């Protein structure tokens, strides 16, 4: 008989959290809400849930641990299952959008903050949980911020047995404690070793090159120890990994130890993600090239050197134009310190900052701007409106940091234009169904309309493919090659990108989902399979919640609708707020409903013009993004007659009524200026001091940007 495999590595007893177990448990027993602050790697994510489990808290419900990032939910739950020697999905599981690995048995459940929000729609008191841990609260993700407000309500409403823990690596504990009427804050002292910091004399013109040089320098001159390199995104990481491998190979043989270069980011396939957690082979230095997931969400052991380029890629939304931008921006001081801290986990380390100390001191913001202040809030506002809690008035919702009045108004307008709320700001039946679909509001609305029009099957495909975020061109192919390859794919019959996505999926369907068809067309097999899975899930959900949904397998609908009129019409309704009108005598467009914005159809779009080359008068777009200039991404043609009702609605729009006040009524509740536009009032003096410094730094930054 072969001997059984050795038991998995037990939880390391030296983790700081474990040493404070009694103290933490005493606080949890005595208080409904406790804030736990501890250095990254101190065991908050992996140990707290296990401690509570050991102490019997899973007897009357499960423990939920939220994560802002999907990759963290998956990775941490896998680790905890390992430590408890149980198969993932049994006692320990995870749930992220479109992927649920939990079972009846699951009593420790890691889930994204978005999934917990959705669960609260069908179970407003979240009764299945005895403990809810809002992890990584310092990330200040939009959904975690909403959850903070929701928890505040829940502990008041629910029969006192719910325990809420809020954990963070850097969060201003006092501010959160105040928010929860003075709940205790436990500071778990860290065990960081000193980290020596080196600054560049100037900002590099090319941070990839500069990181490369620093990495090679470390490899040649420094003692053993892994190197963690922070990059801004997947593209940079891919570039960096291949260049670094090349340069290491070019080093004289035997001049230094072996090296292993590993990428780490959210869209990495799972089998590659786990590689960074395996210890380095003997006499080998690992280079981990990561996005800011390695800042606080994931702890990679063995790191002694950190290279910090000082940038991060940040998505920002502008509520006055409806436009997103994906900017590479300077990190905040808090982020810079977190990055440096990664070098001092196991022994004294070194951090190479590729920027001058003056930039760190004078230009970096103190802390990152919370996501709630740089996102479109349509989905969140719809969620809050759909809660059947008494007295819920979105504009009076208790936010840790309130969003601007402008972005709340933008959200209300968006929801009104797609019929999720009525002219008095009340959620509609359509809105309620939308809130239950795990999709952005535009796609939920499209599905509901498609169901009415009898083209649900097609719309499900479009929504699934868009949600699965399939990449079309393999990263290696050059642009021209990519375009040529893409021409071999269906072309959307000239109607646009949504139609093309549908046709691509249907072509694959006709091959019996042959993976070779995907690789022949340079489509990621993994992504395509995922979209098929997402489509199945969406179809099940909508059949459950939308009464009378048609047979989603009905394939006949295609034949009777060669111009995709029904589908395009459903898209027009769903994207009622993402509409653009062609400029007279031009092929440029301007957005409808926002401050007039000149925008272009993205060059990769398959939308075609008529015989004179004129593009359609009206189009809907999935996303408006400002890169080299404002582009509409994923665009499809819609008919002028379908647009009319939307334009009418825009004319009638009364923001005062929409925001909850009703012009005629005696008891108006207009949007209160002081509530949403001057958050400082609610905070103590110190905080507003910090805020004004942040504001000043931001203004300086914008001014400099403007000068360039
Ligand atoms: P925190 O949440 O406080 O940042 P974690 O609980 O995530 O800390 O991590 C505690 C320790 O557990 C880490 O220092 C690391 O050694 C180990 N660890 C965490 N996740 C994994 C993993 N997926 N594989 C191996 N070790 C891990
Ligand atoms: Mg953690």
Structure description:
It holds the Pfam family AAA_22. Residues 25-189 form the Helicase ATP-binding domain. The protein is globular and about 70 Å long. Helix 16 (441-453) packs antiparallel against helix 22. With 708 residues, the chain is of the alpha/beta class. Helix content is 40%, strand content 17%. Mean pLDDT is 87; it is low at 1-11, 474-478, 480-484 and 662-691. It has an eight-stranded mixed β-sheet, sandwiched between helices. A six-stranded parallel β-sheet has the order 9-16-13-10-12-11, sandwiched between helices. A five-stranded mixed beta barrel has the order 17-18-19-21-20.
Unique ligands: adenosine-5'-diphosphate, magnesium ion
In CATH terms, the superfamily of the domain at 195-372 is P-loop containing nucleotide triphosphate hydrolases
The CATH architecture of the domain at 195-372 is 3-Layer(aba) Sandwich
Report how far the terminal alpha carbons are from each other.
72 Å
- Average pLDDT reading: 87
- Structural category is alpha/beta
Organism: Oryza sativa subsp. japonica
Domain Helicase C-terminal: 211-388
Biased composition (Basic and acidic residues): 666-693
Enzyme class: hydrolase
């Amino acid at each position: 008989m072969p001997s059984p495999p050795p038991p998995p590595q037990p939880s390391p007893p030296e983790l700081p959290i474990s040493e404070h177990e009694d103290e933490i448990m005493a606080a949890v027993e005595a208080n409904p809400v406790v804030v736990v602050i501890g250095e990254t790697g101190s065991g908050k994510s992996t140990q707290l849930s296990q401690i509570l489990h050991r102490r019997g808290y899973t007897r009357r419900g499960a423990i939920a641990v939220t994560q802002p990032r999907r990759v963290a939910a998956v990775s941490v739950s896998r680790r905890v299952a390992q430590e408890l020697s149980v198969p993932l999905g049994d006692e320990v599981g995870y749930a992220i959008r479109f992927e649920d690995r939990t079972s009846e048995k699951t009593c420790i459940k890691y889930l994204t903050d978005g999934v917990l929000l959705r669960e609260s729609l069908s179970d407003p008191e979240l009764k299945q949980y005895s403990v809810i841990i809002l992890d990584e609260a310092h990330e200040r993700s939009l959904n975690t911020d909403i959850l903070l407000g929701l928890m505040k309500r829940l502990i008041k409403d629910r029969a006192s047995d719910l325990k809420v823990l809020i954990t963070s690596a850097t969060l201003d504990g006092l501010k959160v404690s105040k928010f929860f009427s003075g709940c205790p804050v436990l500071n778990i002292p860290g065990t960081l070793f000193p980290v020596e910091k080196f600054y560049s004399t100037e900002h590099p013109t090319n941070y990839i090159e500069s990181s490369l040089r620093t990495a090679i320098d470390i490899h040649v001159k420094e003692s053993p120890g892994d190197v963690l390199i922070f990059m801004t995104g997947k593209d940079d990481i891919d570039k960096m990994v291949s260049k670094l491998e090349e340069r290491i190979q070019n080093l004289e043989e035997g001049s230094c130890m072996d090296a292993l270069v590993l990428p780490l980011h959210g869209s990495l396939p799972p089998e590659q993600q786990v590689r960074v957690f395996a210890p380095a082979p003997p006499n080998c230095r690992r280079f981990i090239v990561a996005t800011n997931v390695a800042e606080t969400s994931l702890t990679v052991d063995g790191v002694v050197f950190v290279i910090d380029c000082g940038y991060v890629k940040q998505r920002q939304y502008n509520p006055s134009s409806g436009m997103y931008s994906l900017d590479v921006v300077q990190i905040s001081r808090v982020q810079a310190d977190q990055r440096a801290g990664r070098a001092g986990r196991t022994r004294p380390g070194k951090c190479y900052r590729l920027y001058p100390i003056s930039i760190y001191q004078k230009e970096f913001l103190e802390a990152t701007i919370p996501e709630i202040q740089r996102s479109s809030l349509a989905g969140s506002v719809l969620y809050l409106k759909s809660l059947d809690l008494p007295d819920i008035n979105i504009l009076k919702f208790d936010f840790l940091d309130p969003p601007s009045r402008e972005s709340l108004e933008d959200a209300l307008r968006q929801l009104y234009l797609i019929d999720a709320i009525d002219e008095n700001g009340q959620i509609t039946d359509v809105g309620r169904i939308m809130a239950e679909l795990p999709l952005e509001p535009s796609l939920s609305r499209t599905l509901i309309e498609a169901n009415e029009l009898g083209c649900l099957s097609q719309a499900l495909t479009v929504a699934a493919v868009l949600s699965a975020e399939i990449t079309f061109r393999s990263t290696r192919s050059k642009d021209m090659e990519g375009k040529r390859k893409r021409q071999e794919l269906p072309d959307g019959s000239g109607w646009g990108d949504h139609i093309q996505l549908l046709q691509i999926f249907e072509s694959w369907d006709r091959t019996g989902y042959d993976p070779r068809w995907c690789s022949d067309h340079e489509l990621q097999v993994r992504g395509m399979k995922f979209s098929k899975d997402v489509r199945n899930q969406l179809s099940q959900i909508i059949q459950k919640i939308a009464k009378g949904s048609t047979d989603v397998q009905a394939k006949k609908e295609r034949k009777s609708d060669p111009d995709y009129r029904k589908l395009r019409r459903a898209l027009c309704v769903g994207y009622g707020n993402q509409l653009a009108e062609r400029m007279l005598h031009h092929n440029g467009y301007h957005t409808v409903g926002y401050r007039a914005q000149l925008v272009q159809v993205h060059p990769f779009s398959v939308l075609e013009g008529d015989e004179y080359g004129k593009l359609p008068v009206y189009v809907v777009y999935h996303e408006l993004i400002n890169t080299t200039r404002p582009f509409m991404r994923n665009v499809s043609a819609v008919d002028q007659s379908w647009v009319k009702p939307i334009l009418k609605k825009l004319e009638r729009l009364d923001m005062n009524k929409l925001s909850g006040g009703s012009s005629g009524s005696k008891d108006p509740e207009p949007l209160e200026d002081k509530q949403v536009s001057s958050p400082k009032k609610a905070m103590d003096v110190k905080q507003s001091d910090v805020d004004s410094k942040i504001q000043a730094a931001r203004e300086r930054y914008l001014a400099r940007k403007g000068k360039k």
